[in-house]
Design a protein that fits this description.
The chain has helices spanning 10-29, 76-82, 110-128, 145-158, 163-172, 182-191, 196-203, 206-222, 247-257; strands at residues 45-46, 87-88, 91-92, 99-105, 133-139, 229-233, 238-242. By secondary structure, it is of the alpha/beta class. The protein has a single domain (6-257), classed as Glutaredoxin (3-Layer(aba) Sandwich), CATH 3.40.30.10.
Length: 258
């Protein structure tokens, strides 16, 4: 498998550098988390929730709780967690759900992994599986080519409606030997039920590069300064959450936009 890196996709490289630069500038000018402008369901205002920590460009990333890492190759918990929930591309949950959460995450982000392991299961059981919330994963790449490979690989899995299986299994193994290498990603695709030959074609395609580029543009427009960042949109409001709130704060966030 040959990965088409950002250096061979100038538009993507420019977009990644712009996002990282904007995040650094905003972090230096702001005493809080993400930005955002006052507005409606289309424009997210920053919430006052207890949002929790983020990883930001240029900062050392703390270790991601190595004691609870799953053994390399163990993807069964991720597959079981998502069983029976509709998926389409990057979206998990009922397409008609009135509340949409967009997660901007990086596969090298330890706090993104914490959200995946500690908070998302509760969101799934309380809100996503019942059908009142859907969640969209929009990968960013703050930490170089490894982040980029993970992002493109996840979006390619999304072409087969397996992005969430791929993403959750990847986060569960963050920090294991060879994490986000070409071999790791290909093996993970196979273990999460993806047609590997088709996935390889999509992974290296211009279409996946454009999808990633569009997501980076949306992240910059939303005021993403670190990962994870969430935009929660509902019928009455939209809020920006910089960092990962504890599970009980998500009930408040969902109620705020409903």
């Amino acid at each position: 498998m040959s990965v088409v890196h950002l250096r061979r996709r100038p538009a993507l490289l420019v977009a990644v550098l712009a996002l990282v630069a904007a995040a650094g500038i905003a972090a230096g000018c702001s005493s809080g988390g993400g930005g955002g402008s006052e507005g409606s369901a289309g424009t997210a205002s920053e919430t006052t929730l207890d949002a929790g920590p983020q990883n930001r460009p240029g900062e050392a990333m703390p270790d991601a709780a190595p004691a609870d890492r799953q053994p390399a190759g163990d993807v069964d918990p991720a597959l079981a967690e998502l069983d029976g929930i509709p998926q389409q591309g990057s979206r998990l949950g009922n397409a008609a759900a009135p509340v949409e959460i967009t997660e901007y995450g990086d596969f090298l982000c330890s706090f993104c992994r914490r959200f995946s392991q500690e908070t998302l299961p509760t969101l799934i059981e309380d809100h996503i599986r019942p059908g009142n919330v859907k969640i969209v994963f929009s990968p960013v790449a703050f930490y170089g080519e490894d982040s980029e490979r993970g992002a493109l690989a996840a979006l390619a899995a999304g072409r087969q409606n397996r992005l969430w299986q791929f993403t959750e299994a990847a986060y569960a193994q963050q920090g294991t030997s060879g994490y986000l290498s070409e071999g790791f990603l290909e093996d993970l695709a196979a273990r999460t039920g993806v047609d590997v030959a088709r996935w390889q074609d999509d992974f290296q395609s211009d279409a996946i590069g454009e999808e990633f580029l569009n997501g980076l543009g949306e992240a910059q427009s939303a005021g993403v300064q670190g990962t994870p960042t969430f935009v929660v949109r509902g019928p009455s409001n939209a809020i920006l959450i910089p960092g990962s709130p504890p599970a009980d704060e998500w009930d408040r966030a969902i109620a705020e936009v409903s």
